[in-house]
Amino acid sequence: MTANWGSSLSSDIAIQDLTETQARAELEQLADLLNQANADYHGQDAPQISDAEFDRLKLRNAAIEAQFPKLKRDDSPSERVGATVADGFSKVTHDVAMLSLSNAFDDEDVIDFDARIRKYLGIPQDAELAYTAEPKIDGLSLSLRYEQGVLVQAATRGDGAVGENVTTNAKTIADIPHRLSGAPDVLEVRGEVYMSHADFEALNARQTANGGKLFANPRNAAAGSLRQLDAEITRARPLRFFAYAWGAVSQALSDTQYGAIKRLETLGFSVNPLTGICKTPQDLITHYQQIEAQRATLGYDIDGVVYKTNDLALQGRLGFRSTTPRWAIAHKFPAELAWTTLEDITIQVGRTGALSPVARLKPVTVGGVVVSNATLHNEDYIKGFDSKGVEIRDGKDIRIGDWVQVYRAGDVIPKIADTDLSKRPEAAQPYIFPTVCPECGSDAIREDGDAVRRCSGGLICPAQAVEKLKHFVSRAAFDIDGLGAKQVEQFYSDGWIAEPADIFALKARYGSGMQQLKNREGWGEKSAEKLFQAIEDKRKIPLSRLIFALGIRHVGEAASNLVAQHFGNWAAFEDAMGQAHAHEGPAWDDLIGVDGVGTVMAQSLVNCFAQDAERASIDRLVAALDIQDAARPDTAGSPVAGKTVVFTGTLEKMTRAEAKARAERLGAKVSGSVSAKTDILVAGPGAGSKAKKAAELGIETLDEDGWLDLIAGL
Q: How many CB atoms are closer than 10 A to CB 435?
């Protein structure tokens, strides 16, 4: 099925005007869109949404989370980096995670970036604070590991923690040295593999002459070329490499970002000549404008400028958020526009039953990329109104046959921003959004205050059932070799599987199973044997993966890890879900007391187990599995490991963010509220109701100095 890009978002409603119901619905849609976008872009080299649209949705997601912190989903873009490793490559675990960057979109964002860093570090506005600024290359991230000066390993970013081993392919790139002289004993160089415009055009010309596939843009061509299983294909492709960072090193390259980049250059790496040092936010903006002015003449694609704190000691103090460093930001270039004909509007049904409208466009080239699909958000957006009835686009609706304005930047699918009424066909009729599911015919209901219309069919809706099964076998869930989306659709259509438990009964249910499967098109005896063995191998599954695989609304990969860590084993988790069904009492308080689990997520978890049909399906699945207890972090020697800590009041020797990050590194659970589960309250000046409640509950209370003494030396 095509990716669900026609998301039902209330994105034309100001954040402050969203109701909690609207915010919850929109966060769900954003999570689905952006997690899929990461998989398409990083895992498949086949993006289905533009860079600008991705950035816009990610920014809105963050803004809604800030406005409604209790609704934050752990499968939101703020908790994800890249995508999992593709089949065909061995895995490489990065010694130092390869993270993504947060984004700036205008001058004010750049000024705010500088202000945040100064506030975090306690640096006055009139004190000098230097940054580097360099072009953001639009390519594929690559890590090169050298030992004793010899290139021993090359790996893609993957999901940030685990990448693909592409060593043989990387060695075919002329810009990548095989040996270094004068390098540290261990040096992990990071940079971007890209393709120049001239080489890209020549490659597509050769592809045309040979009857081969044409590439949409240089980034896709570079990514697809590096990730070939046959290194000779990579060798034949004109790939280049810019170095801009490092991972594991046995000896520091420099004490500054700029100095380290120049050191990489002396070692023989190509570094971008437009990299410079800036000392004020205005210097950064000026450098950005200078690079943007040269963008069309560079001969390779860039999509912004990256700013990094130059002092590496300050970078160390600033540290990281869950997926991005605090000391760097990408200032993105603005989007592009084009006009084309809207040929049709189709409806897609997601695994949660959401009906999402997608614009089918007459193909149009925008910035060198041909696009044919776009998001229409939701039925209100099509009508020309937000969900509160306020006009957007001056109240103009969108109709099939309209001449529409397409908005994109970077890669592929855009959104429809406007329509030209002067070119509207006389026969064009207002679009009537369906009130029944196009997949199963069930009523499609839109609850009050919700921007999303959902199929009420549940388990009888094939779209929902298939999408849930696809989710179950996805990379972050059961990840069964040989059982992907295509096979799930085939087996479901043939009546072989209807729910997850059926997967583990395949062989037994159909006798040997082997004979029936191997006679199907696309299957042989060996592939059938491998599939059944892969299914058997996944009977043993970690608790966190099982929880994620269940596809419970609002419960993403990171949240599943949190819940698994908290309960430890399936029996405890299952028992807690049963005891918390009334949404009150000790079990409920314990669940919502898990840092990162809010009321909305807790309700989804409990409600899932309270539905008879859903619970029966889960029971059938669990009976076929060997569920592994959650692994505990290695925090030996930490006096706060496993304890719940709450910070309140003003901290004077470190920021709240630094204190929270340090506590979590030591194995503590940091909560925002005091309860009977709280072990330690760290109270600074101005502590109020939390300190009073802690005293009433007899909870140990420390001032900032007492806290620092407790964790001293760790």
A: 12
Are 312 and 210 part of one and the same domain? Answer: yes
- What are the pLDDT digits (tens) for 498-525? 999 999 998 887 645 556 666 666 677 7
Do 246 and 366 sit in the same domain of this protein?
A: no
The reply to whether 465 and 389 lie within a common domain is no
pTM of the model: 0.48
Residue type, 540: K
Residue 136 annotated in active site: yes
Is 185:192 a contact under the CB 8 Å cutoff? no
Residue type, 678: T
Domain CATH for 133: 3.30.470.30
Instruction: For residue 383, give the CATH number of its domain.
Output: 2.40.50.140
Helices marked H in 50-106: 51-67
Question: Which DSSP state fits 640?
Answer: T
pLDDT digits (tens, 9 = 90+) for 511-568: 455 566 666 666 777 888 888 899 999 999 999 999 999 988 788 887 898 899 888 8
Same domain as 533, residue 546: no
Sheet with 669-671, strands from edge to edge, namely 669-671, 644-648, 680-683, 700-702
Are residues 493 and 408 part of one domain? no
Which region, left, alpha or beta, applies to residue 276 given φ > 0 means left and ψ of -120 to 50 means alpha? beta
CA–CA gap between residue 405 and residue 148 (Å, rounded): 56
Single out the catalytic residue among 72, 136, 332, 383: 136
d(C-alpha 331, C-alpha 333), whole Å? 7
What are the tens digits of pLDDT across the range 9-64?
Answer: 544 567 777 888 888 888 888 887 887 776 666 555 456 666 666 777 877 888 88
Residues 581 and 484 in one domain: no
Alpha-carbon span 211 to 66, nearest angstrom = 51
Q: Which of 180-184, 362-366, 601-605 has the lowest mean pLDDT?
A: 362-366
